UniProtKB/TrEMBL annotation:
Record protein name field: ADP ribosylation factor 79F
Alphabetically ordered keywords of this record: GTP-binding, Magnesium, Metal-binding, Nucleotide-binding
UniProt xrefs under InterPro entries: ARL15, P-loop_NTPase, Small_GTPase_ARF/SAR
Organism: Ornithodoros erraticus
Binding-site list for GTP: G45, L46, T47, G48, A49, G50, K51, S52, G91
SUPFAM superfamilies noted in UniProt: P-loop containing nucleoside triphosphate hydrolases (SSF52540)
Binding annotation for Mg(2+): S52, T69
Domain of life, per lineage: Eukaryota
Family matches, as PROSITE patterns: ARF
Taxonomic lineage: Eukaryota, Metazoa, Ecdysozoa, Arthropoda, Chelicerata
GO molecular function: GTP binding; GTPase activity; metal ion binding
Length: 203
């Protein structure tokens, strides 16, 4: 008789465990999954600055033989519990006048600057960024600048790029970050920083 009672108790214990697991499964299956916040990001820069290479490096795509973007290129990436819809626009003289058509609805700007391109090109990049940020549609929108090609000799440092851009980044959250060709971490750091800025501006 004691053996029978023991078996009954074991059976009841098993039923209780199964019931708890069943209830837990039902609760989890009915739980609403919170949608991720989505942000629209423009990736801009002069042609040859390294925009396509930077984004390809980030998503693990081959970077050899990448041609300059002639129109636009779109990447969707999860970053810091958000989703970034990144639209990279070509940077040629013929395409830049059409950039402003893509400014509506943008939450942040990732500007890629070839820090190894020399004084003339750096000044041209500065004037281009100044024109972009002066547009009323992008007023106050955060901006992160990737100073690329830091692995090359003679490249402008982050401090030098900050001095170059002095006076055109006021009124918004911004940062200049270093980036080397083929280095994923530099690009990711830039997007994480931009995401933090965009999230803060939405609160």
């Amino acid at each position: 008789m004691p053996k029978v009672m023991e078996n009954i108790q074991i059976g009841f214990a098993g039923c209780r465990i199964a019931l708890r697991r069943c209830c837990k499964w039902l609760i989890c299956s009915n739980r609403t999954i919170e949608p991720r916040e989505q942000y629209e990001v423009l990736c801009l820069g002069l042609t040859g600055a390294g925009k396509s290479t930077a984004l390809a490096t980030l998503v693990g795509e081959p970077t050899e033989g990448i041609e300059p973007t002639s129109g636009f290129n779109i990447k969707t990436l999860p970053v810091n519990d958000t989703v970034l819809n990144i639209k990279e626009l070509g940077g040629t003289d013929a395409i830049r006048p059409f950039w402003k058509q893509y400014f509506d609805g943008v939450h942040g700007v990732l500007f890629v600057l070839d820090a190894s391109s020399g004084e003339v090109s750096l000044k041209a990049a500065r004037e281009t960024l100044k024109e972009v940020l002066s547009d009323s549609t992008l007023k106050g929108k955060p901006c992160v600048i990737l100073a690329t090609h830091q692995d090359l000799n003679g490249t402008a440092t982050v401090v030098q790029v900050e001095q170059l851009l002095q006076g055109i980044l006021h009124g918004r959250k911004s940062m200049v970050l270093p980036c080397s060709r083929g280095e994923r971490q530099g690009v990711l750091k830039g997007l994480e920083t931009l995401t933090d800025y965009m999230t803060a501006s939405q609160k």
